[in-house]
Recover the amino acids of this structure.
């Protein structure tokens, strides 16, 4: 492949594309909800609807409630619930580089770095989501028991080999 760019880029193109994708995703969500409402109107059994659409029974009843309370508008995303990131795509790329350069290990460290570098506040849960979006895995720490024998790992390995 040549070094020639395949797509003409300009400032903000990534943000623009992602905003358009978000709009279409929202339209798809409403469409899925309408299919469920249509199935309910056709007296399909709830267990059948759950299996057909791959959603939970609670979700079906939530969408029915939204429909009953607001019709078509009730199924659409509410104003102010955009859930958009406070960081731009460029800032996320920079954050990824910072995490790698400074070998940040915990969500708390990343949270502090975001507040210092970008002056944006997030909850720890939001930081975990951002880290997952950037491709970092999150595991909960495990307990090390004080009464555990020093050779516990070796004992476990022996037991598993048997």
């Amino acid at each position: 492949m040549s070094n020639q760019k395949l797509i003409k880029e300009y400032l903000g193109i990534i943000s623009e594309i992602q905003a358009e994708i978000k709009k279409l995703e929202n339209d798809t969500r409403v469409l899925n909800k309408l299919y469920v409402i249509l199935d309910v109107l056709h007296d399909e059994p709830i267990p059948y609807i759950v299996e057909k659409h791959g959603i939970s029974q609670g979700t079906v009843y939530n969408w029915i409630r939204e429909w009953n309370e607001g019709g078509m508008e009730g199924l659409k995303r509410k104003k102010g619930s955009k859930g958009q990131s406070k960081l731009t795509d460029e800032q996320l790329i920079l954050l990824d580089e910072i995490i790698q350069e400074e070998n940040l290990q915990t969500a708390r460290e990343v949270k502090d770095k975001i507040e210092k570098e970008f002056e944006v506040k997030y909850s720890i849960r939001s930081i975990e989501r951002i880290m997952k979006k950037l491709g970092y895995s999150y595991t909960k720490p495990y307990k090390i028991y004080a009464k555990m024998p020093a050779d516990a790992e070796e004992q476990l390995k022996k037991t598993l080999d048997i």
Observations:
- The chain has seven helices and no strands.
- The radius of gyration is 24 Å.
- Helices lie at 13-41, 46-53, 57-75, 89-102, 107-118, 124-133, 152-161.
